Amino acid sequence: MTQPNSMATAGTAAPAVIDAMIRLPEVCRQAGFGKSAIYEMIASGTFPEPVKVGCASRWSQLEVQEWITQQKAARKAA
């Protein structure tokens, strides 16, 4: 018996993409920069801006990963 909209079909289901809101220490760890450098890049428009959650700042995990991917691509193009 098959189930409609089932993700159980082997080899055909794409993995689910889940975005997480991450804090500055994790952003720094992933990007390899300190917080001052992160905020300088945000000010210059070269790094993803944070999302304000109340008085806290959080970054999209996917946006940070996309930025890292772009940096790698730029390295290869140079």
Summarize the structure.
With 78 residues, this protein is an alpha+beta fold. The chain has helices spanning 24-31, 35-44, 61-77, and strands at residues 21-22, 51-53, 56-60. β2 (51-53) and β3 form a beta hairpin.
Account of the 3D structure:
The chain contains three helices and three strands, in the order βααββα. Strands 1-3-2 form a three-stranded antiparallel beta sheet. The protein has helices at 24-31, 35-44, 61-77; strands at residues 21-22, 51-53, 56-60. The longest helix is centred in the C-terminal third of the chain and has 17 residues, at 61-77. With 78 residues, it is α+β, with helices and mostly antiparallel strands. The radius of gyration is 17 Å and the shape is flat. A hairpin with a 2-residue loop joins β2 and β3. The termini are far apart.
How do the strands and helices of this protein lay out in sequence?
Blueprint lengths: L20 E2 L1 H8 L3 H10 L6 E3 L2 E5 H17 L1
Antiparallel strand pairs: 1-3, 2-3
Features of the shown structure:
alpha+beta; three-stranded antiparallel β-sheet; 13% strand; flat; single chain; 78 residues
Gyration radius, rounded: 17 Å
Biggest sheet overview: 3 strands, antiparallel
The computed structural class is: alpha+beta
How widely separated are the two ends? 54 Å
